[in-house]
Amino acid sequence: MPPWAEASRVLRGVERWLLPAECLLCESPVSPAADDPLVCALCRSRWRPIPDPVCAACGQPLEAGLDCRICTAWPAGFTGVRSAVWLTGTARTAVHHLKYRGWWRVVEGMAPAMRGLPPLRGHVVLVPVPLGAARRRERGYNQSEMLAGALSRGLGIPMRTDLLRRTRDTERQTRLTPDARWANLSGAFAGRPAGPRRPVLVDDVFTTGATLRSAAEALLAAGAPTVGAVTFARAVRPLDDLLASTS
User: What are the extents of the domains in the chain?
Assistant: First the structure.
């Protein structure tokens, strides 16, 4: 057993006894012997998977008779982006705990929902989207790197944190329009050659795709023939939410 795997096993054993025996998301009791004592099975069952069919490039569910408009400006080499679940309910709570409350170990409950995503198949390398220096100091860790690490351990796929770096800090994206998000992130990353493996970006949430697009362009400029991406969650657009509530 590799040293990191043994360390992870020991950490999980310690947590089973030290952490409160309740789900981080709904606070209901969880047995310390559960597969994931941090996120209960009921909360995970309530996560809404992204339905097929989806756009082959950006992974957005397709609406009958309409072409996808999200990825029309994406470079041809950036394709095969997929998300596991909609950013609603306890999936949103999981992301909130990860990004704003310091509960980085919640990724152990999030990563299994992503393991079957098509971009993770084949000869790939996981590339977490890097944070700016100021935000990483504020948060204490990079949530995308934590998520990529959990996927790497679960699937045996290598992760590289040296293939992509932020060249500058950027404004927070939360309240920006899609065009402003792209302007904010354009040229914000620099990439390095990934070698023979196809780089697959890892991030927590797909909102407009601006962050992933900018990161992918940096990897493509560094020589990657194609770049894919996976995220745990995908933000719900108003029309998507309406269709889901009436289906």
Answer: 1-45, 48-246
